[in-house]
Predict the 3D structure of the following.
Amino acid sequence: MPAPERALERWFEDFHPGDVTEFGDHEMTEAEIVAFAGRYDPQIFHTDPEAAKATMYGGLIASGWHTAAVMMRLLVENFIPPNASLGSPGVDELRWLRPVRPGDRLRVRVTVQEAVGSRSRPDRGIVRSFTEVLNQHGEAVMTTRGMLLYRRRPKG
């Protein structure tokens, strides 16, 4: 992947329920799939293209964790504003819906579901979102429901 291009400056107040943002284009290569899996998820259908043909997948597929890592990179490059991000308290749901294969091109679609200001810390708020990782056919290969903490726009 190329060096990150950071998202435009945005603050908590700039996220509204119903907002949809789509971005990214990452090709999953065989070499990348095998390298990631060899290090982090060394199951045969992720690491050995020949042996993977005999599995229920009929060929090499990317680790779901690899897909999640690509999603995160695309989020950082295109969606999460570096000026306001305070990280995430977690993900409520993660689903792998379809195998990702060599040559698949991935992009991300984020739908803001809720934006709620903190009562105890008025300088921030939490944004809940539904995130889809889509392949080149527009099919969802992975979805998450999660949340991110953002700073509010400074006064003055």
